[in-house]
Amino acid sequence: MPNVPSIRIRPRNNAAIRAQGDFVLYWMIAARRVQWNFALQHAAELAAGLHKPLVILEPLACSYPWASDRLHRFVLDGMACNASRIASHGKALYYPYLEPAAGAGKGMLEALSTRACAVVTDDFPAFFLPRMVDAVAPRLSVRLEQVDSNGILPMRAAPEAFTTAHSFRRFLQKNLARHLSAFPASDPLRAVSLPKPPPLPKDFTRRWPACDPDRLAGDIHALDNLPIDHDVGAVEAQGGAEAAQSRLDAFVRSGLHRYVEYHNAPDEDATSQLSPHLHFGHISAHQIFDAVARVEGWTEERLGQATDGKREGWWGMSADAESFLDQLVTWRELGFNMCWHRPDYDRYESLPAWARQTLAIHAVDPRARCYELEAFENAATHDPVWNAAQRQLRREGRIHNYLRMLWGKKILEWSTTPQKALECMLALNDKWALDGRDPNSYNGIFWVLGRYDRAWGPERRIFGKIRYMSSENTARKLAIEGYMNKYGDGTWRSRDEL
């Protein structure tokens, strides 16, 4: 098993590795999986090199922004899967912790780290996780290292924040090949020999007891007494590595070969639906890439030599596979690139100057309709297509990819200012979407307002030079009858009504 590339490892304090410690601790906070995980691999390699046991701590706080039954249940599904898989290896002690009240988990990591040789954690560039790691790093008396297991391209490999997908794609075509030969181990625990971990101290387990099996197993009432939002209910889709693998297998088997033709068709629903699993770290971009490459019979020798930034032809795969990989690698990792380089990635001021300028010029334009957050949230607009998209978000925690773009454009059109439109999009997406609070999710929202795009003409009311979309054009271009039957309110009959 090759070592984790050094470009993915980032020391976060000046403390030394303590060889006399009892174990190596992996603090699992973003890459919530056992397989295809550089951070777990690095922790296992450290433990093997020191001849020490490995302890895996996976906590779930209750005080993070937008904490709800929906998000908690999806994470807990993953924790149940991790518990089973780690137990089957018998090589590490897995400790799942579910915080029962705000602040109850405070001090837990510091307490456990006093016995550790080193602490390894995930390097995720968005939401509250960077601030959390920044705060805890100087408080630990032992080495803390963050490991980037987010994408095919290490975040530190790109020297700047790219402003267009084309320029980022050119960079990938020049630089990605060297990273395609440095994938994480598919099963890092199987590849190492580790001593059996001892039980954790009783004073630790009494103060911070492990999550009970009923909660991990999906008991419907297991979350009732937690101080989280119970109005945002759990969805039918399950979290966890097994569910993610099943979703990947189904897509590669029946969705990939029709991706180009149907991925924008709401009635076909031919997208991978892997975004929530990627967000919670239940599946790796490397794992997805490997599955696509296998079904394509692909080898690195088929990579193209051109570095002109074109979307087609560089991978040396079918058109369907290349179109999908452009979403998985170019667009998804463009979001990580932005979050890594720009701490203001989720603020209005991060928009390109041309977009802010044109929106400012048209901020005073009269709006035919304006809605407040409550009306948007309750799918109470005049537009049946927009309302259907919002109902899907509330019901399933996702919106079909193409309609998600329309969803954002109409919020811009129906808000009193572009700043309020951004606030609304972020609130709705972070609260209801399983894949909200993610670099890729911020990508989509800020694209609505001009990020990664260009100025468009003719200049329009409210939008200015920002790209325009309408429900009327969407209904004319796409087959949405089945979608509207499923998510509409029963009043929409045909596209002719728009």
List the helices and strands and how they pair.
Blueprint: E1 9-11, E2 23-27, H1 38-50, E3 54-60, H2 69-89, E4 92-98, H3 108-113, E5 116-122, H4 129-136, E6 144-147, H5 165-175, H6 202-207, H7 213-217, H8 241-254, H9 259-262, H10 275-279, H11 285-296, H12 319-341, H13 353-361, H14 373-377, H15 384-396, H16 401-413, H17 418-432, H18 439-448, H19 471-477, H20 481-487
Parallel strand pairs: 2-3, 2-5, 3-4, 5-6
Antiparallel strand pairs: 1-6
Helix pairs in contact: 11-12, 12-18, 15-20, 16-17, 16-18, 17-18
Provide the CATH topology of the largest domain. Answer: DNA Cyclobutane Dipyrimidine Photolyase, subunit A, domain 3
Query: What number of structural domains do the residues give?
Result: 3
Q: Strand tally, please? A: 6
Overall shape: globular
Task: Give the distance, in angstroms, between the N- and C-terminal Cα atoms.
Answer: 58 Å
The CATH class of the largest domain is identified as Mainly Alpha
**SSE order, as H and E?**
EEHEHEHEHEHHHHHHHHHHHHHHHH
Share in β-strands:
5-15%
Stretches where pLDDT is under 50 for at least 5 consecutive residues are: none
Strand line-up in the sheet with most strands? 1-6-5-2-3-4
Q: Give the biggest sheet.
A: 6 strands, mixed
Level-2 CATH architecture of the largest domain: Orthogonal Bundle
Helicity range of the residues? 40-55%
Please compute the radius of gyration using only Cα atoms: 23 Å
Structural class: alpha/beta
- Average pLDDT reading: 95
The CATH homologous superfamily of the largest domain is termed DNA Cyclobutane Dipyrimidine Photolyase, subunit A, domain 3
* Count, helices: 20
